[in-house]
Write the structure tokens for this entry.
Amino acid sequence: MDKTTIVGRLDALRNKMTAEEIDMVLISSTDCHGSEYVADYFKVTEFFSGCTSDNVMMLITEKNAYLWTDGRYFLSAEAELKDTGITLMKSGEPGVPTLNMFLDQNLEEGMVLAYDGCTIRCDRGSMFRQIAMHKGAAVRGDFLPAEGIWEDRPTLPSGKITHFLSKDMTGESIESKLVKIREKMKLKKATAMVIAKPDDIMWIFNVRGNDIPYNPVAISYCIILGNEVNLYIPGYEAEDLKKYAKENGFNVYPYDLFFEDLKEFDENDRIWLDYVTCSDRILEILSAKGITSVVGTYPSTELKAKKNPEELRRLRECYRIDSLILCRFLYYVQKTVGKEPMTECSLADKLDYMRSTISDYLDLSFETISAYGPNAAIVHYEPKAGEDLAIEAKGFYLVDSGGQYLSGTTDVTRTIALGEITDEMRKDFTLVTIANLRLLNARFLYGCTGANLDMYARSALWEHAVDYKHGTGHGIGFILNVHEGPQNIGWRILSPASGKLNSEGVKTVFEPGMITSDEPGIYRDGEYGIRIETIMECVEDEYNEYGQFLRFCPLTYVPIDLNSLDLSLMDASDKKRLNEYHKAVFEKIAPGLTDEKELAWLKEATREV
Amino acid sequence: MDKTTIVGRLDALRNKMTAEEIDMVLISSTDCHGSEYVADYFKVTEFFSGCTSDNVMMLITEKNAYLWTDGRYFLSAEAELKDTGITLMKSGEPGVPTLNMFLDQNLEEGMVLAYDGCTIRCDRGSMFRQIAMHKGAAVRGDFLPAEGIWEDRPTLPSGKITHFLSKDMTGESIESKLVKIREKMKLKKATAMVIAKPDDIMWIFNVRGNDIPYNPVAISYCIILGNEVNLYIPGYEAEDLKKYAKENGFNVYPYDLFFEDLKEFDENDRIWLDYVTCSDRILEILSAKGITSVVGTYPSTELKAKKNPEELRRLRECYRIDSLILCRFLYYVQKTVGKEPMTECSLADKLDYMRSTISDYLDLSFETISAYGPNAAIVHYEPKAGEDLAIEAKGFYLVDSGGQYLSGTTDVTRTIALGEITDEMRKDFTLVTIANLRLLNARFLYGCTGANLDMYARSALWEHAVDYKHGTGHGIGFILNVHEGPQNIGWRILSPASGKLNSEGVKTVFEPGMITSDEPGIYRDGEYGIRIETIMECVEDEYNEYGQFLRFCPLTYVPIDLNSLDLSLMDASDKKRLNEYHKAVFEKIAPGLTDEKELAWLKEATREV
């Protein structure tokens, strides 16, 4: 983007600040619903900075502009911000103040800090307000930075419901879900639940949309009362939705009416909120009326995580077909590499196309990570056409991909050797394999959380003084977000920064029916990256005098590259686990392969070692 | 005890209740300092019930009496309470209300609930007061149940300081410790710290006492102000203590003056307290004056857990000698069993005597658990002369023991086969061995807590659907309590009962210098019990791009019974860990053995497998 455009936009913003007597403006890269991916309409930080990173906070003052983002984006953001006059604030780097610290140091008495409270998480907003109060500054949470400046702004997503799912497909009626939610509300003495989380809302109403890239959801709000349920959605006028709502006994209202209805609550209400997805605007409206909030994970988030038998039945079949596609793709890569030209992008396109041929395919579940050589060491790498690497018959190729289907949401990563690899690469690959299989084969007592389970995988790497700087697993939705809470698998019980208890995942007990990824990795900067990701279903195991044991069943059935292993590093138990997994892969995938060569490849790729 | 005596004592208590218009009396089995073991003076529940269990709460009403205790004591308590008219409330059993639930169901408007607030933890007291308030009942926290009834009550412990430890012995001066504590107070803006925890007080003042069985401490309170430090202790008049206090710049006052001085604080004070050891009385006095409490683990508890280089130097040598004694004892048992008569008690006496011959021996660190056959399945078994089992040349013998020396506090458990054992026993023994060695050899990143580390050990058992219903490890003091916080090793992040975050151990990060036990076990009710306990020092390992790795070094060097192992269940890595440990045991212990036969035994017991 032309740097002078950015400078011009910031000037326009500063004029507006002067006119409205505002000293500092905060802009966030998120939408009004705490979404992981956002629609173009919400890309306000990109409009004002040219920076395409996720997880951005901008602070604009009369003379300066600052942009905070995290380590995944330092390199790209540096290039994008060049000559814009915006200072890049590298979050987490030594000597770089956090936004909170910066505000604490720079807000002065009498100043006005302004932002759009709809795009700020309520807990962050509370912190900004606290700092401002402490400094004697004022906060305006209703400031719209792009209004009047961003002329060709994309329209707000349509809020169209694209799929009304039958009870047959979802396994549970809206009515039944609401009964369970209201039981939990009663326990917490909540008179209402206010939900801004689109995937929870889609789950409750058994519908899907396509407002957000990769997430099959429509932007919306929901208020659940004791005897009424209201859906607030831009597409409220659609006839099919109106009819569906009538049949299912809920009300449909315009998206903007949500904030008006919020103001109808009074001090006799106790409102259940979620800090992660509720915005500063919502909390402010309620706080201003002295309404008590009950803060906690929504019952819908917890219920949604435990897939019901119908969802599980569909998911197992969905993963079988998705695995079959990936097997055929890996065979193609190994067969073709060194013979025909291929690049990271061409392979991503090939795989994306293969997925799209599946009958109930809707979309990708995230942008395909097709990474060769040193690029695979960048955990969130996305190849860009023209800038991507050509792939040769040597080294590692990593592919992390998934699809949205009407039978489920998938995610899978495999790393394969395309030719010669070094001993160090072989050792690292073996450690990641051991880690992946130990977690997949864990048997554990009911009561374990992700902080316990992480150790099954990570300890195999720690033994060799190696680590990966990400969690081992995340929950996955059913035709919903590929990253879904509340469970996750990660070892850090305390946040190193705050010393406080980490995310809800640390406290979420694993339950049968939860779907979680198992994805340890090793990343060698500038050299190569390895990650092996298998999706697992949590199931009941033995019940005895010690309690209820649980274990995992794989949903993903794709070979782990035997040619990259150093078997001398594996214990007999590790080899047994590998052979058992490969036996299951062959049994699950072979019947779906019609090409003799593919079948021969699978047989070889799943041979006993 | 004669049951009519108990009935008579309860009648006397009820007369007192009537006279003072009290409806319910609560009595706790703890002392005023949250001690694990208590002096005879504090055994008020035993006086009123005949029940010798630890962890008892009694509730006496006009017509009934109830006694709550936990699973360790159900059998003994049932026998002890027979014919006393006291109802045993088995904590944790289905259908048995907790004391809180019982109070909630039975307290009525206008009733008076009374107890001695000095022997009730402040958090439990707060809960009782809350329930009473909710029910419209009153609470009297100054009621002394035994006063006027228990005529031959033992005297209050003397509060005599038996050892003044030089800086040379403790590695750190009182002054230096106070500087660190006051720094932490400043960070929390606390104007004073009120400590009721005897082991912290002994650590701060570099002294020891002998008021409490097995814990080398004197009962005492301490108040740390910005420029003054006060010790409140029954033995305040001792000349040596007066002199020592003068030399070291602290004040010594009578034990009872503590409560008077507490009343001197006012609403400008912020007092640092610890919920686990501060009593209801302390919190009540402060709350009544509207004083803010800062609740949290004391800095002394955290500092004390990280042993300094001098303490570590002494501990290593202390454990070498203690290990040597246990090796010689195990040799004696294996050589003698089946040839000479022996019982659980005779072996405990033998081992206790052997320990007492060590030059700087002070006491046992807890009552020796010398358990044969089915008795070893009782985790806290203590043999009683006359009721103990004769030991024969078959099955398992478990011995869990430790000493207090002027060079440290020890704890160690080994289980050995005395002859034939079944395949199941062999399998269980092997699993416990694998678990113990995996934790001992863990390498882990700084930031791990006991909930992460527990998995190294426990996962080896879970793999076979077996568990042990206790933690894997506890911290250990330096010439102090054998069970010492804040760290521990246990997997449960959430309490199964409350669903809330478990003890402080879950959140305590392991640090170099911490001393912790590693003691997995398997217990087969009515058959046998296996536990292997090695004490470990946490030390620094590699520092690299992933962070600071830590690991453990054993302090305990005693062979693990090779004759009880099924090697076919062990992976190559497990065998490697076993051989490495045994090599170290031989190197450490052999030089101390003068008897050729003992040396030959050690060589055989530590042979490579």
